Amino acid sequence: MRRILVVLAAVTATAALTVPAAFADSPHYLKGPTVTVEGNSLTVSWKATGLGNTATSADFSLTGTANVSSQCFTKSGNPVNGVPKQETVDVNVSGNFDVRNGQTTGSLTVSPLSTLTCTGNQHVVILSVSFDLTLNGNDLPPVHLTG
Fold first, then answer.
1. Strand order of the sheet with strand 143-146?
2. Which residue range forms the structural domain that includes residue 139?
3. In the 8-state DSSP scheme, what is residue 83?
4. Total domains in the fold of the chain
5. Which residues fall within 8 angstroms of residue 123, CB to CB, at 6 or more apart?
6. Does residue 56 lie in a domain region?
7. What is the tens place of the pLDDT at every residue in 54-90?
């Protein structure tokens, strides 16, 4: 009986030491990814963890398309005469982010989102955006983002 208890204690101790190591290198997103459109830019932000304590950096890429409707507006906020410009933007941006304590926080930005150019004191306003994007990161599962 005593021998069984000693063996059981040894197995439990071994499991207790190996399980945290398995979770330490289990890449996943802690926050996000989230998509925001502000001005003439689209930004995808995230916080990833479980990247392991030996990694010093992680590569991320954002690919896909964004359908954009934009129009020129005057300084006083009135739309310029004409039909809004409709365009499909191919997205292919990447970045390398520092990893500390097995985690990283990052964002990738597509800018300008619209290729529309305005004259004089006019400025581009994004009227609507729809997107079909994929975020890929080191050993992380790809995330499909639509909106």
1. 85-98, 57-73, 123-137, 143-146
2. 25-146
3. P
4. 1
5. 72, 73, 75
6. yes
7. 889 999 999 999 999 999 999 999 999 989 999 999 9
